[in-house]
Specification:
The protein is an alpha+beta fold. Strands 1-2-3-4 form a four-stranded antiparallel sheet. The chain starts with a strand and ends with a strand.
Length: 130
């Protein structure tokens, strides 16, 4: 099950996650996936993600699926929920920078924009237009 958590900043403060480095910008929304009360994955819709591309917004970012639950469609479900959230908030497009989730994004209809070197890593930037 994947659910969206609104008022994400207050949620982060309550569990102490606001200090994590990969959540550098306050999220617009966060979604989590769980199975039998165990956290399987998390992702955030953020106004900023890749600082060299601050002119693009919003971003599907900070995605992580527990290795024990990978290859079960959880990452794709997290992306689907973030897409829906962005669309419901009135955005006409969404962006994502990844070095690992290219296939998930491409299967969901995202378009490759460019590859950049970011923090010493090759990162592919994708866009999905609604």
């Amino acid at each position: 099950m994947v659910v969206s958590i609104h008022s994400a900043y207050q949620c982060f403060l309550s569990v102490g996650l606001s200090q994590l480095h990969f959540l550098s910008a306050v999220p617009i929304d966060v979604c989590v996936s769980s199975y039998e009360n165990e956290l399987c994955g998390v992702a955030a819709l953020k106004s900023e993600s890749i600082t060299t591309h601050s002119h693009l917004s919003p971003w599907a970012a900070a995605g992580l699926v527990n290795p024990l639950y990978r290859r079960r469609g959880i990452g794709a479900d997290l992306v689907r929920v973030l897409e829906g959230t962005a669309r419901s908030l009135g955005y006409s497009r969404i962006y994502c920078g990844t070095s690992t989730a290219n296939r998930i994004l491409e299967r969901r209809g995202w378009q490759f924009v460019e590859e950049v070197m970011y923090n010493g890593e090759d990162v592919s930037i994708y866009e999905k237009v609604f």
